[in-house]
From TrEMBL:
Protein name: Hydroxymethylglutaryl-CoA lyase
Keywords recorded for this protein, A-Z: Lyase, Metal-binding
UniProt superkingdom: Bacteria
Alphabetical list of InterPro entries matching this protein: Aldolase_TIM (IPR013785), HMGL (IPR043594), PYR_CT (IPR000891)
Natural source organism: Sporosarcina thermotolerans
NCBIfam families: PRK05692.1
Gene3D superfamilies: Aldolase class I (3.20.20.70)
């Protein structure tokens, strides 16, 4: 029997403190966010997206972004990133000494307007300035494209628009692109078709995948991505998260479930499973509700 050869190592981009908490109605105390991020820093994760420097009225759950970034204990070898929508947010991020800037845009016009209150073309103009100034200030930049596989308002999204935005962001100067299945509609065949086109233009190390598990296909989509040589995945500990501007979007792919699958496939992650689970249980306690990941549920029941 012949098997597809999988990558020897995968890099997990932990987005729980930002994407996981941004849609929660309960505000997590700043001190608890800081403690949680510090716990995540000790797990072996090499990348943590800690917050978003958006207008606090847009995302009240992350209104303490400045305080969080300034007070976390940065661990050697860990990149601490934050989402930045515009120059005002960038100035705050730079003042807080964030390591990496993340910029975001949607492949769907309607979702982009609801998420950013601008057209796609207007957003590209804003992001070009943010990327340029970030690089000038010696910050690496990561790009996100949302609703890559489907939009809650427009339905299917054209691959050509995803490719156009990919080209646009890399031309601006981003170092890595995360492709987001914001509402969790993707299937493995869609993933393969998109990656076949993208990987003709860009090396696999420049591409990351960001899956939501709304319909239970996130892990299958990871497997399809691994088969295409992708080694970078966004995930949120415990499966926390959802887009506030995408009705019906449930949680992110759970970091702990992703790590379980990868480690048991013999794929290196450099993550300590027990420390990861401990951090998940800490946040579950602060949320006052069960987390959605299978790993947490298994621990709770055994």
């Amino acid at each position: 029997m012949t098997f597809k050869q999988f990558p020897e190592q995968v890099f997990i981009r932990e987005v729980g403190p930002r994407d996981g908490l941004q849609n929660e109605s309960k505000f997590i105390n700043t001190e608890d966010k800081i403690e949680w991020i510090n716990q995540l820093s000790s797990t072996g994760l090499s990348y943590i997206e800690v917050t978003s420097f958006v207008n606090p009225t847009w995302i009240p759950a992350l209104s303490d972004a400045d305080s969080v970034v300034k007070q976390i204990t940065k661990a050697p070898g860990v990149t601490y990133a934050a989402l930045v929508p515009n120059m005002r947010g960038l100035n705050r991020a730079l003042e807080s000494q964030i390591d990496e800037v993340s910029v975001f845009i949607s492949a769907s016009e309607t979702h982009n307007k609801k998420n950013i209150n601008k057209t796609i073309r207007e957003t590209e103009t804003v992001l070009a300035e943010v990327v340029r100034e970030s690089i000038t200030n010696n910050k690496s930049v990561r790009g996100y494209i949302s609703t890559v596989f489907g939009c809650p308002f427009e339905g299917n999204v054209e691959i050509n628009e995803v490719l156009r935005l990919t080209d646009s962001l890399f031309e601006m100067g981003i170092e890595e692109l995360s492709l987001g299945d914001t509402i969790g509609v993707a299937n493995p065949l869609q993933v393969r078709i998109l990656l076949e086109e993208l990987l003709k233009r860009y090396p696999q190390e420049k591409i990351a995948m960001h899956f939501h598990n709304t319909r239970g296909t996130a892990m299958a989509n990871v497997l399809a991505s691994l088969e295409m040589g992708i080694t970078k995945f966004d995930s949120s500990l415990g499966g926390l998260g959802g887009c506030p501007y995408a009705p019906g979007a449930s949680g992110n792919l759970a970091t702990d479930d992703l790590h379980y699958m990868l480690s048991n496939m013999g794929i290196q992650t450099n993550i300590n499973a027990e420390k990861l689970l401990s951090a998940a249980m800490f946040m579950q306690d602060k949320m006052d509700k069960p987390l959605d990941s299978h790993t947490v549920k298994y621990r709770m029941n055994n």
